[in-house]
């Protein structure tokens, strides 16, 4: 009987030990699981917070980049506009005329750049086609009041006039410009009062710079009138 009781007691103790062990193991496992879960939650939370911060940082960075881009583009635009303005200001009269031949119809432009315009038209006679009739002497108009005064035109044989100029030492070529003006070198042949404008004098006309080579009876009425040689 005692043996049986002792055996039962040992079994009971063993069972209690096993149960206690199982309970302890369960507790430890639960504790570890809980800690793990808590740890994972903490990581997730920390990751979430980190992600939120990263998103905010990316948003801030994007906004900053856009602002810098806009500022940079604005500066580039201002530089280009200033450069373009300077280029326009530095353009020569010849460049402006070549780009916009119709400027030769602009009386204000011609008056402001008279010398340059006339030189350009001399060197490139084809440009004379753009000169408006209202800005210069014409065959249909007959009379024009140019930069030196009243202008008229005449069409006579120039051989005698050229001989006189040759005798004075002028060897420039005689030719007829596209618009009909008779030329001696780079200048239009004009008749004038020789007391006021001796032969060889360079004078301003509505058709460009002229050279006094001739005279006429018209000088009795005006010492400033110019008679321009043309083939009209």
Question: What can you tell me about this protein's structure?
Answer:
- About 50% of the residues lie in helices and about 15% in strands.
- The chain has about 230 residues and is of the alpha+beta class.
- Strands 1, 2, 3, 4, 5, 6, 7 and 8 form an eight-stranded mixed β-sheet that branches.
- The protein is elongated.
Structural category? alpha+beta
Radius of gyration: 52 Å
Number of helices: 5
Please count the beta strands (DSSP E, at least 2 residues each). Answer: 8
- Report the biggest beta sheet as strand number plus sense, adding barrel if it closes: 8 strands, mixed
Helix content: 40-55%
* Share of β-strand residues: 15-25%
* Alpha carbon gap, first and last residue: 161 Å
- Molecular shape: elongated
- Could you state the order of secondary-structure elements as H and E? HHHHEEHEEEEEE
Uncertain runs are: 1-9, 41-48
Q: Return the average pLDDT rounded to an integer.
A: 76
Keywords:
single chain; 232 residues; alpha+beta; 5 helices; elongated; disordered N terminus
SSE layout and pairing:
Elements: H1 2-90, H2 93-99, H3 107-112, H4 114-123, E1 144-146, E2 149-154, H5 159-167, E3 174-176, E4 182-184, E5 187-191, E6 202-205, E7 208-214, E8 226-229
Parallel strand pairs: 2-8, 5-7
Antiparallel strand pairs: 1-2, 3-4, 4-5, 5-8, 6-7
């Amino acid at each position: 009987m005692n043996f049986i009781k002792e055996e039962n007691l040992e079994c009971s103790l063993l069972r209690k030990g096993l149960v206690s062990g199982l309970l302890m193991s369960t507790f430890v496992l639960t504790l570890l699981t809980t800690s793990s879960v808590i740890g994972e939650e903490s990581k997730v939370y920390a990751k979430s917070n980190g992600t939120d911060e990263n998103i905010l940082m990316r948003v801030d960075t994007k906004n900053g980049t856009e602002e810098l881009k806009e500022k940079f583009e604005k500066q580039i635009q201002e530089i280009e506009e200033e450069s373009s303005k300077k280029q326009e200001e530095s353009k020569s009269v010849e460049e402006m005329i070549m780009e916009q031949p119709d400027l030769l119809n602009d009386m204000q432009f011609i008056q402001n750049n008279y010398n340059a315009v006339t030189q350009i038209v001399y060197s490139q006679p084809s440009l004379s086609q753009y000169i408006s009739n209202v800005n210069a002497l014409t065959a249909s108009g007959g009379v024009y009041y140019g930069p030196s005064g009243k202008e008229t035109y005449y069409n006579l044989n120039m051989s005698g006039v050229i001989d006189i100029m040759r005798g004075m030492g002028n060897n420039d070529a005689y030719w007829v410009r596209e618009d009909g003006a008779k030329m001696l070198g780079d200048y239009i042949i004009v008749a004038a009062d020789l007391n006021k404008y001796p032969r060889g004098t360079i004078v301003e006309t509505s058709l460009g710079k002229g050279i006094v080579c001739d005279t006429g009876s018209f000088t009795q009425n005006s010492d400033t009138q110019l008679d321009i040689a043309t083939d009209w």
